[in-house]
Amino acid sequence: MSGFSGDVLRQRCQSLLSSIRERPDHLSDKDATLSLSKAAVTGNKILRQISEKSESECLDIRVLCDYAQLLLDFSYAIEIKIVNDEFTEDYKNKIQLIFSHLDEALELLNPLCNTKEALSPSPTELGKVNELRECLYWRKGALMYMFCHTAYHNQSRLLATSTLKAEFVSYATRGVKYLSVEMRNTRREQTTLEYESSDEHLLQLIKQGIFSDVNMLSLMYAAEMCYWITLIDSDTDIDFSPKAIGQQLAQQYISLADGPLKHSSWNTEQAVNICNQLQAA
To answer: Is 234 left (phi over 0), alpha (psi -120 to 50) or beta?
Structure first.
């Protein structure tokens, strides 16, 4: 958090709130408007907290978590717009803008997981920090997935050249890493010992890093991106095997859907198809 202070936080909140008040037409979607409204509430809450605290107190963990949530909600409004527009207008700069907000939040939250930091969170606070970190990596990976999904089903526009194919593979590769590595690592320290339950299925899910529906979706999204990478003719260097990783993720999804989550209506058809296609590749 080097260089971050109460004054910097105040300025950034004020800047974001100013952007929210402008309510540009391109963010008039109902869901985007709701996301901006939530961001405005959080931003004003942070400003009140700052005004009531000393410089040394205004950067406590709760305030930093609130600011991370503000960045999540504000950037989500932009994301809704480019996804609804199917990545047509200036999508590269907007993806970069979204990532700048998400990365800013991660730069504030990641050091809090280091016990040597001055702001050492309590177990409850650490749980909140990790939930936010998981959400931030999920948002990064899911955005890469949405781009790749749109591009794969609109190849005449988004995959028409070797440059666009390389961009696709780059985005897919990043998406796989965000969802299958970074996101899952946010809770790798949590074990079944932290949970008191006689439900063996629940404990099995926790052991495999499944804490919510989002974790199941991340397996499928990452597996599908691995599959798409194998289908796109590109010279892009990849530092992992999309075939092996894709099979592993899809198989884990199938095992969970047919096992501890068999009564939760998770569909395995696409995952089975991905496994078969990758095995034959």
So the answer is: beta
